[in-house]
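Customer ticket, subject: "Can you confirm the structure for ATP12 chaperone protein?"

Message body: Hello, I'm evaluating your service for our small team and ran a test protein. I'd like someone to confirm that this is what the system normally returns, since I don't have a reference to compare against.
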Amino acid sequence: MHKRFWKTVSVEEADGRFQPVLDGRPIRLPQGHVLSVPTRALAQGIAAEWGRIAEGASFTPDSLPLTRIAGTMVERISPDPAAARQALLELGVDDGLCYRTASSPVTDRVFDWLKGKEIFPNVTDGLMPVAQSGFYMAGLRQLLARQDDVGLAALGVLAPALGSLLLALALVAGVVSEGDAVSLANADEEKQLTVWGRDDELIRTMTNRVTDVREGLQFLAFGQQK
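Agent reply: Thanks for trying us out. I re-ran your input and got the following:
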């Protein structure tokens, strides 16, 4: 838990990148890197987070979601984007979208989009792991290769939140809407609530998913805005 110690928040440009600064000083990340991002819009979004914290108020990393995602991008993704792509690829090996018991308009749109890119995941209505082909993995690698650091950072939030790299990729590509993606990801919890009644833990999981997806998309939008 930390308390606000700064009086002013602003954004400065340095070497073609943008830094949110507190009282004229750059923000330092846990490993010592300066928090520097590729677009002014993202830096302004981060600065706004710090500016919203009341004077003397306590805050945690959860109060600063854009800062948290940007910190991951700067300290973990940018130094080794290949490792970040590999970590995401491993989510696609056993993708949650491949274990749906019934199709829906949303899943149909995702699979049609993948088909157009010659990516054909194997699916099952059972619980046993389903093996994926080398062609499928190669197709996913190509999709991930097109993602810059901002896209990889956003996917690093969206894919775990949605339980599916395929759904996250379709979401950032505009194939499905935020609401449709979250509704599909929440389907299992919704079914359990219908059968068993109110469960605070399930409701918390669904609420956190909504928040994570919103924050991941906001980061992506700011990071892509020129």
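A couple of notes from the result: The mean pLDDT is 94. The chain is about 55% helix and 10% strand. Feel free to reply with more questions.
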